[in-house]
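Sample entry (236 residues):
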Amino acid sequence: MHTVSVRTTQNVIIHYPVASVGERILAYLIDRIIQLVYILATATLLVRLGIQQIWIWGIVLALPVLLFSLLFEIFMDGQTPGKRLVKIQVVRLDGTRATIGGYILRWLFALVDFGVLGGAIAVMVVAAGGKGQRLGDVVAGTTVIKLAHPREVSANTIFVTANENYVPVFAQAIQLHPSDIELMHRALEADIRLGNSEPLERLVEKIKTKLGIHSDLNAATLVQTLIKDHSHLTSG
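Predicted structure, serialized as tokens:
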């Protein structure tokens, strides 16, 4: 399975599995079915209402279909309904959230990717490359990754916080830099969402050495504890 490797500032690599051609085709077909249902339902309604003005048909019918993928990816953080059902997502090659400009470039080049040879170009380019990119992705600097059971992950699981009555376990956590805390969150996310525990294990060893901590807690529990300790110790 191809992956996108993200090297953090702490020299820890997080691997994101790239969505397969089959997963992307399935997501595309689901989106097309949704668009077809919308077209049929809207056209039926317009006919029954006796609306014949071309500009109204264009605004109500054609424009939403034309902007379908662009608007959904912008407002659903790199996902369309099809991508969400298949559990895949558009991201930048460094694993961070894609920009609006990136979504626009992907949308513009979709005409070439899917409009020529019935989408064969998109399939060939994705299959031939090693980063899961169609032409639009290459231009935008994006790819599509596979999410591992995203519904099982909540904000409280990854972005750990401490309540008011929390008692810190490790006083050394106050020495952690905000960049360390961000890295911990990302390593937890890789472990929980993607099932990749290697970054977390490597990070824990470095943090233990840095803070002089000796603990038998498992990697995830220790990191979550340190995040809560740091939050509590620096909040006052």
